[in-house]
Amino acid sequence: MAAALELSRQSEADRKRREEEAFEAEVARAMAESRREERCHPPYPLKIEFPLLGVSEFVGLWRGVEARIGHATSVMEKSSLVKEGNARVSSRSQEKAQYGRLLFGATQKVIEILDIKRDETFVDIGSGIGNVVMQVACTVGCASRGLELMPDRVFVGSRILTDLEYLVSERGWGMGDCDFKQGNLTHEKKYCDIADAAFVNNFEEVFGARSAKTGSDSLDRHVASIFAAMRPGSRMLTLEPLTSLGLSRKEANLRRKDKKNDLASFFEVSEHSLSPARYEWHDEDVEPVASWSTKSSEITAYLYLRTEQHSEDGPMYLCSNHRCQGFVAPTLALDDETRMLVDRCVYCDTPRRIPRQSSSSSSSLSGRKRAAAAAAAPPS
């Protein structure tokens, strides 16, 4: 009995391995073929004014892309092309590049929370295979960018995009310009900070201290610096709070017992919930939020808004030390040379205040830990 069970497990493992190998071979063949086609036939020119896709229509085209490639997205994600980076990466500043994908319904919720407009630029920092970037381009019609550290994930995303653009144009629809860039966010800040709206999947602190090499700033700190450099009115949505930003304008003014002083800080933050829900494109009862979450798991998202300040020098803040000159004289929150956040007052060296974790964040974190423990526990 045990021998038969072990043989069955080996057969299943062999089948999955063959699927992954077939997908990788198909991607390599298709990319080579698409390059030959592009040399013979220029890409289809997209019109400035074009009909956009609804979410259901986008999902239908995504399924069409899967059919053209011959593999479901879940199979692609299990291949070494996508999984590489979950353990370690060869980067000077980064230890890991954990992979995870938002599903269609949650992605549309992200679009709604960020309130992305057609004439804006969207950037996904850590874009994986680029599904969020492509859904934004198709359903909003804006310029959409994705920055990803792992070159093979960019390779897979580019392969999907080639077929998606073909299907979109074939059916008479249009989509915003899509661009994927392979690179490290610590070196590609200018690619990101031009965004009007940005999304960062830093769930479970994968961009926190454990993501960075010893002695390096965390990726969350780099993300916070990118946000600070974005234009007033820009938005960034993250799945963990960016505590290195310090206090929001509302929090800073409350502690200062001040009225609406726009120089107290350069941003506001609000919490939003991404929840599993029923959708017409999902065959089962509810669609989870993400590839790693369950049908009952909600995820808290944090919306950061760069606020207007009566200064053209960049993001400003006021020191929390009431005896300091910086209590009334604002200073830049970004270092001119490093373009990283300043974490101490330039006048008195007082550290910038870090916001307390909200009760909802704490309960969300403890809830995730309980859910993880329950999932890991053996069945009774």
Walkthrough of the structure:
This protein is an alpha/beta fold. The protein has one domain: Vaccinia Virus protein VP39 (Rossmann fold, 3-Layer(aba) Sandwich). The strands form 2 sheets. A 7-stranded mixed β-sheet has the order 3-2-1-4-5-7-6, with helices on both faces. A two-stranded antiparallel sheet has the order 8-9. β2, α7 and β3 form a beta-alpha-beta unit. It is elongated and about 75 Å long. The two termini are 22 Å apart. The relative contact order is 0.10. The C terminus is likely disordered. It comes from Chrysophaeum taylorii. GO terms for molecular function: histone H3K79 trimethyltransferase activity. It is found in: Nucleus. Keywords: Chromatin regulator, Methyltransferase, Nucleus, S-adenosyl-L-methionine, Transferase. Its EC number is 2.1.1.360.
